[in-house]
Amino acid sequence: MAAYTVPFRLFACLLLVLCLAAVRCEDEKTLKLRKLEKIKEDDKDFQSSVQLSEPDAEGHIKLSGELKQHVTLDNDWKVNLTAYRADSADGEYKLFKAMPPMGVCQLLSSYYKNFFYEKLKDYSNAPHPDTCPLTPTDYYLKDYPLDSSMIKKMLQPGYYRVTGQLLKDDQNQLEYLAEVQVE
After folding, report:
1. Domain residue ranges in the chain
2. Beta bridge partners of residue 53, listed in sequence order
3. Rounded-to-integer distance, Cα 160 and Cα 33, Å
4. Which listed residue, of 87, 89, 142, 155, carries a Cα 20 to 30 Å from 121's Cα?
5. What is the pLDDT of residues 133-163, one digit of tens each?
6. φ, ψ (nearest 5 deg) of residue 159
7. Which residues form the signal peptide (predicted)?
8. 114-128 pLDDT tens trace
9. DSSP assignments along the chain, one per residue
């Protein structure tokens, strides 16, 4: 793997947390990945990819990915995460959770620092939370173990669509979509 960065890490963090393919939760909920796809990418600014491993015997999934970042990221770049939920796959999806758009540096010094960096650094060349702005570079994530325990309390049975976007001047530069079923 050869590239991955914080905005994508945040997508990954929610997408990877919500994109668990057949992972058992302690309360016997099962999360199944139905879809994980890149919706948009401005290849002048980024080149990215994500791969999920097949579940092992215990149902554990690992995430790997790359991001080639060709631009400097600061608080002018906003991360936008939104989750929608429906009772059935063909049902009407309604807003479940939305994180207000947050600047990359603001994100680094808050959610990223408090919830993700300590574990993420062992599987990647993730930037330190105090590093911002982020200058162009290549990031990678290798075999990051997904853990459903963080979200099992948040999700009720149903179907979820989670989008992660990276915006510059309100223009979508990078977007991923995950569709997850919770049984």
Report:
1. 6-182
2. none
3. 10
4. 155
5. 999 999 999 999 876 656 656 788 999 999 9
6. -120, 135
7. 1-25
8. 988 998 999 999 999
9. -----HHHHHHIIIIIHH--SSEEPTTS-EEEEEEEEEEEE-TTTEEEEEEEPPP-TT---EEEEEEEE-S-BSTTEEEEEEEEEESSTTS--EEEEEEEEEEHHHHIIIIIIIIIHHHHTTSB-PPPTT--SBPSEEEEEEEEEP-GGGTTTT--SEEEEEEEEEEETTEEEEEEEEEEEE-
Q: Which tokens in the block code for residue 129?
A: 């939370």
**Per the structure block, which two tokens stand in for 1?**
């793997």
| pLDDT digits 0-9 by tens, 52-80 | 887 777 767 788 999 999 999 999 999 99
Q: Structure pTM? A: 0.80
Query: What integer pLDDT is reported at residue 56 of this predicted model?
Result: 76
